[in-house]
Design goal:
Layout (H helix, E strand, L loop, with lengths): L1 E5 L3 E7 L24 E7 L1 H11 L5 E7 L3 H10 L6 E4 L5 E7 L5 E6 L19 E5 L4 H14 L2 E4 L10 H8 L4 E5 H11 L3 H7 L3 E4 L8
Parallel strand pairs: 1-4, 1-8, 2-6, 4-5, 8-9, 9-10, 10-11
Antiparallel strand pairs: 2-3, 6-7
Helix pairs in contact: 3-4
């Protein structure tokens, strides 16, 4: 079985601010905010939904293929993927863009300010469905390029390709009609408990109605104990 992960690849640049944001933001001046937070350090992590999922599956002994777009600064990410034994063959490189990047600053109170540049993620990964055997392919569609998240499920449905749909952080940007279309016929829908409730609200479905659309729904609960 060929497992393809459609989603994002991104650099996460994580910074530590030694104070509290609240001590440097004046509520009565919030409309003219101009403040600089000098950080102690910065760490760069290899992130993005497709990268994280592919890494986890590789640890479990699978050989996933990533379908995503990266920019001209892709070299460090590709080097790391190579060390992990993860193929880069399905990744589209755009020389006129930067790879998606999140700039995350955390203060002493664990408050966060994040800036996110989607960069190459604004572009489709251009997965070549003509080269896929529907009987031997499982596609996982995770948050990334919005066009891919809308169109790839439709192509899978038309070609009889099994797919897993995980809308995640892209839920607020998905049109209710596109969201429902993407769910219908998917092998597995994955969401956390908050996302699951948001899916119900956006689509107008109740739980029984949703389960008539998807074959299986997995809802993660974080630290919650089922039934509590």
């Amino acid at each position: 079985m060929k497992i393809i992960i459609s989603g994002s690849l991104a650099y996460d640049r994580i910074m530590d601010f030694p104070g509290y944001f609240k001590d440097h933001i004046l509520p009565d001046k919030i409309h003219v905010l101009n403040v600089c937070f000098q950080v102690n350090s910065m760490q760069e992590k290899f992130g993005g939904t497709a990268g994280n999922i592919a890494y986890a599956l590789t640890l479990m002994g699978h050989k996933p293929v990533i379908s995503a777009a990266v920019g001209r600064d892709y070299h460090r990410y590709f080097e790391w993927l190579g060390k992990m034994g993860i193929s880069t063959a399905g990744i589209r490189v755009l020389e006129d863009e930067f790879t998606a990047c999140a700039y995350i600053t955390t203060d002493r109170g664990d408050n966060q300010i994040t800036g996110f540049n989607p960069g190459a993620m604004k572009h489709s990964s251009r997965l070549d469905f003509d080269r896929l055997d529907p009987q031997e392919t499982l596609l996982m569609i995770s948050p990334g390029n919005l066009e891919d998240m809308v169109h790839y499920p439709r192509i899978c449905q038309a070609r009889g390709i099994d797919y897993i749909f995980d809308p995640g952080q892209s839920l607020p940007m998905l049109d209710p009609g596109d969201l429902r279309q993407a769910m219908e016929g998917c092998r597995i829908l994955i969401a956390n408990d908050y996302e699951f409730d948001l899916i119900l609200k956006k689509t107008g479905l109740n739980r029984k109605g949703l389960l008539r659309c998807v074959r299986t729904a997995i809802v993660t609960l974080g630290r919650k104990v089922p039934g509590s």
